[in-house]
Design goal:
Elements lengths: L3 H14 L1 H37 L5 E4 L38 H9 L4 E16 L2 E10 L1 H8 L5 E4 L1 H6 L3 E5 H7 L6 E6 L4 E10 L4 H4 L2 E5 H8 L8 E6 L5 H12 L2 E4 H4 L1 H39 L1 H9 L4 H34 L21 H27 L3 H7 L1
Length: about 425
C-alpha cells in the first residue's frame, strides 16, 4: 500500500534542499504561462478590435438593387438566332431604379423572421459638400439613428454629439471627421450640400462621425431618412438599401440566397463582402496560437532538463530509499510528485503574473485617430486562457517528470552503493 504522506514529505524535502533548482524550474513554468496569457490576451484583444472595426459596421446581409447589364439581350429573343453564337459589343446597363420596390413590406417580412435580430432601411446618395467656391465629393446616407445605434453600434463611432441629436433635430447631419477637418466645420454650424441634380440644401451639424477608416471619414455623412427623401424629392417609401442583423452570423449566406430568389434583389452576406478581411483575421489568430503554444512547449522542455539533472544529483538518495525497502514505484511517485508540485506552483504564479501584466497593459494609454473608441491597449480577459494555462502547466510538468521518474524507478541501488 502506498504511503502518500511519507512519499510527499520526501518529495518536499528534495525540493527544499535544492531550492535554487526548484525555484528555477517553477519560474520556467511561471514565465511560460505568464507569456502565454499576456500574449494571447493582448493579441486576441487586438484582433477583436480590428474585427469590430469592420464587422460592427457591416450588416450581416446587405440588400440593394445593382445596376448591371441585362442578362438577356434582344438578339436572344429572335428564333432565327437561337442556334447561333452571338457576340454583342458595348452592352449598356439596363434602365432600372436604385429604389427597392416594396421595401417596407420586405422589411416587415424580414423582421418577422425568427433568425433576424433587426432589418432597417437606408438611403444612399452621392452629394457635394459646398464651402464657398469649394466643392467636395461625398456620400450621404439616410438612416434611422436609434435603430442604427441598437443594431450596428453607430453611437460608438460618433465622437462628438449623439445619434439622438440627429433624430431630434430637423434638417440635421452627422459629418465625417475628414469632412469636418477639410472644411473647418464643427457642431452647431451649417453645411450646404448639393445633389447631382444641383439642388442645394443647408443642414445643421449635430455630430462628428469617425469610423477609423480615413478614406470613409473623408466623404461619409449621415442624416435622417426623411431628410434625404426631402432633399431628393422622393416619396416616403423611397428606400435604396436594407441592412439585416442576424442572431447567428452563419445563417447569413442561406438567407441571402433565399432573399435574392424570392424578391429578385441583390443580397450580399457578410462573409462574402469581407472574404479578404476574414482570411487576414484567421492568419493573425493562427500566429497567436502557434507562438503561445511554442512558449508553453519551451517551458516544458526546461522543466524536463531540470528534473533530469535533479535525478542525477539524487542518485545516492534513490539508492538509499530502495535499500531500506522503497519500491521502484514509490521512487517514481516521489519524482512525479515533485514535477506536479513544480507545475502547480509555477502555473498558479503564472496565472497571477499574467493577470497582473494584462491589467497593467490595459491601463497604458493608446489613442489614435484610426481607432476612436480605443483609449488604452486592448486586452481580452478570457477565462479560458487561464484554464488552458494552468492545465498545460500541470500536464507539461507531468510529461516532463515522467521520463526522469522512469529512469529513477529502474536505478539499481547495489551499483550505486558499490560505486560509492
Amino acid at each position: 500500500m502506498v504511503n502518500w504522506k511519507v512519499l510527499l514529505n520526501i518529495a518536499k524535502k528534495h525540493l527544499l534542499t535544492k531550492f535554487k533548482q526548484t525555484a528555477v524550474a517553477a519560474l520556467g513554468v511561471t514565465f511560460g504561462i505568464t507569456s502565454y496569457i499576456t500574449l494571447a490576451s493582448f493579441m486576441t484583444g487586438l484582433n477583436n478590435v480590428l474585427d469590430d472595426l469592420i464587422l460592427n459596421q457591416t450588416p450581416h446581409i446587405h440588400i440593394y438593387n445593382e445596376i448591371e447589364p441585362s442578362k438577356q439581350q434582344p438578339i436572344s429573343l429572335y428564333d432565327d438566332f437561337k442556334n447561333s453564337f452571338n457576340v454583342v459589343h458595348s452592352i449598356k446597363p439596363k434602365l432600372n431604379q436604385k429604389k427597392i420596390h416594396n421595401a417596407l413590406p420586405i422589411i416587415k417580412y424580414l423582421n418577422d423572421n425568427k433568425d433576424v435580430k433587426g432589418a432597417i432601411s437606408q438611403i444612399k446618395t452621392n452629394i457635394f459638400y459646398i464651402s464657398g467656391s469649394i466643392e467636395l465629393v461625398g456620400n450621404l446616407t439616410g438612416i434611422n439613428p436609434i435603430e442604427e445605434a441598437r443594431l450596428f453600434n453607430f453611437k460608438d463611432y460618433v465622437i462628438e454629439g449623439s445619434p439622438k441629436d440627429l433624430k431630434n433635430t430637423e434638417n440635421s447631419i452627422i459629418i465625417g471627421s475628414g469632412v469636418a477637418k477639410k472644411m473647418s466645420l464643427s457642431i452647431g454650424e451649417r453645411v450646404q450640400i448639393s445633389t447631382v441634380n444641383g439642388t442645394v440644401f443647408p443642414l445643421k451639424i449635430v455630430g462628428i462621425y469617425q469610423s477609423g477608416v480615413s478614406d470613409i471619414d473623408a466623404i461619409q455623412s449621415f442624416t435622417n431618412i426623411k431628410t434625404v427623401q426631402t432633399i431628393l424629392g422622393e416619396a416616403k417609401n423611397y428606400i435604396t438599401d436594407i441592412n439585416v442583423k442576424l442572431y447567428d452570423i452563419d445563417r447569413a449566406l442561406p438567407l441571402a440566397k433565399k432573399i435574392e430568389q424570392q424578391f429578385n434583389l441583390n443580397a450580399v452576406d457578410i462573409n462574402t463582402a469581407n472574404a479578404q478581411f476574414e482570411t487576414g483575421s484567421s492568419i493573425r489568430n493562427l500566429i497567436t496560437y502557434v507562438v503561445s503554444f511554442t512558449l508553453l512547449v519551451v517551458a516544458g522542455f526546461g522543466i524536463y532538463n531540470i528534473l533530469n539533472m535533479l535525478i542525477y544529483e539524487k542518485m545516492n538518495d534513490i539508492a538509499i530509499l530502495k535499500a531500506i525497502g522503497f519500491s521502484g514505484k514509490d521512487v517514481q511517485i516521489i519524482f512525479m510528485s515533485e514535477a506536479l508540485i513544480i507545475g502547480i506552483v509555477g502555473g498558479v504564479l503564472g496565472l497571477l503574473f499574467g493577470l497582473l501584466f494584462t491589467n497593467i497593459i490595459n491601463t497604458i494609454p493608446y489613442e489614435t485617430e484610426g481607432l476612436p473608441r480605443i483609449k488604452t491597449y486592448p486586452i481580452d480577459f478570457n477565462l479560458w486562457y487561464y484554464v488552458i494555462g494552468l492545465t498545460f502547466a500541470i500536464i507539461s510538468t507531468c510529461f516532463a517528470g515522467f521520463l526522469p521518474s522512469q529512469k529513477a524507478k529502474k536505478i539499481d541501488p547495489v551499483k550505486i552503493i558499490r560505486g560509492q
